[in-house]
């Protein structure tokens, strides 16, 4: 993985910003066409680079986040496209989209 850059972004609620380690088995052709990985989609490994404050419960209590900046995580590919900041792609996920933390 590349060295972590300082990002000047703050996710809201239970959102997490993750930099993927790789493209999840996809191949991008020179023409820009993305070929999906064959078979079932594998979870994507990435590094958490920013974490929101946590979501509010129904009674107004802020629920703490389980992930923290620097955690290595696995997540399923989200429907949303990644955002690009300084030529690096990031996914913005809900914490519940993360399937595990790698110890």
Itemize the secondary structure elements and their pairings.
Blueprint: E1 15-20, E2 27-28, E3 34-35, E4 44-51, E5 72-75, E6 83-85, E7 88-94, E8 98-102
Antiparallel strand pairs: 1-4, 1-7, 2-3, 4-5, 5-8, 6-7
Pfam families: Cpn10
Subunit structure: Heptamer of 7 subunits arranged in a ring. Interacts with the chaperonin GroEL.
Protein name: Co-chaperonin GroES
SS element count, helices: 0
Could you say what the CATH architecture of the domain at 15-22 and 41-102 is? Answer: Roll
Given this structure, which CATH class of the domain at 15-22 and 41-102 is correct? Mainly Beta
Q: Structural class per helix/strand content?
A: mainly beta
Strand order of the largest sheet: 6-7-1-4-5-8
Describe the structure.
The structure is a single chain. This protein is mostly beta strands and 103 residues long. It has a domain at 15-22 and 41-102: 10 Kd Chaperonin, Protein Cpn10, Chain O, CATH 2.30.33. The chain is 0% helix and 36% strand. A six-stranded antiparallel β-sheet has the order 6-7-1-4-5-8, with no helix packed on it. Strand 2 and strand 3 (34-35) form a beta hairpin. The model has no long low-confidence stretch (mean pLDDT 84). It comes from Candidatus Kaiserbacteria bacterium RIFCSPHIGHO2_02_FULL_56_30.
């Amino acid at each position: 993985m590349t060295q972590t850059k300082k990002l000047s972004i703050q996710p809201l609620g239970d959102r997490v910003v993750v930099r993927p380690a790789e493209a999840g088995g996809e191949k991008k052709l020179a023409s820009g066409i993305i070929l999906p990985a064959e078979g079932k989609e594998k979870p994507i490994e990435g590094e958490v680079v920013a974490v929101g404050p946590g979501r509010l419960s129904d009674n107004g209590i802020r629920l703490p986040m389980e992930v923290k900046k620097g955690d290595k995580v696995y997540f399923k590919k989200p429907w949303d496209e990644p955002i690009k900041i300084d030529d690096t792609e990031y996914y913005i996920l809900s914490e519940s989209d993360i399937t595990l933390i790698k110890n």
